[in-house]
Amino acid sequence: MKKYVYGVDIGGTNIKFGLFSSPEMELIQKAESSTPLSNHETSIFSLVGEVIESMNKKNCIEMSQIEGVGIAVPCPVKNGYVEKCPNLKWEKLDIYASMNKYLPSNLKIAVSNDANIAAYGENQSLEIPHNNAVFYTLGTGVGGGIIIDGEILEGRTGAGGEIGHMHVFEGTEPCSCGLSGCLEQVCGTSAILKQTIEFSKEYPTRLDLNKLTVKDVFDYAKDGDIVAMKVIDRIGEYMAISASILAVSLDPDIFIIGGGVSKAGDILIDTIKKHYKKHARFNTGDIPFILARTGNDAGIIGAASYVNKK
Amino acid sequence: MKKYVYGVDIGGTNIKFGLFSSPEMELIQKAESSTPLSNHETSIFSLVGEVIESMNKKNCIEMSQIEGVGIAVPCPVKNGYVEKCPNLKWEKLDIYASMNKYLPSNLKIAVSNDANIAAYGENQSLEIPHNNAVFYTLGTGVGGGIIIDGEILEGRTGAGGEIGHMHVFEGTEPCSCGLSGCLEQVCGTSAILKQTIEFSKEYPTRLDLNKLTVKDVFDYAKDGDIVAMKVIDRIGEYMAISASILAVSLDPDIFIIGGGVSKAGDILIDTIKKHYKKHARFNTGDIPFILARTGNDAGIIGAASYVNKK
Question: Is the pTM of this model over 0.90?
Answer without folding.
Answer: yes
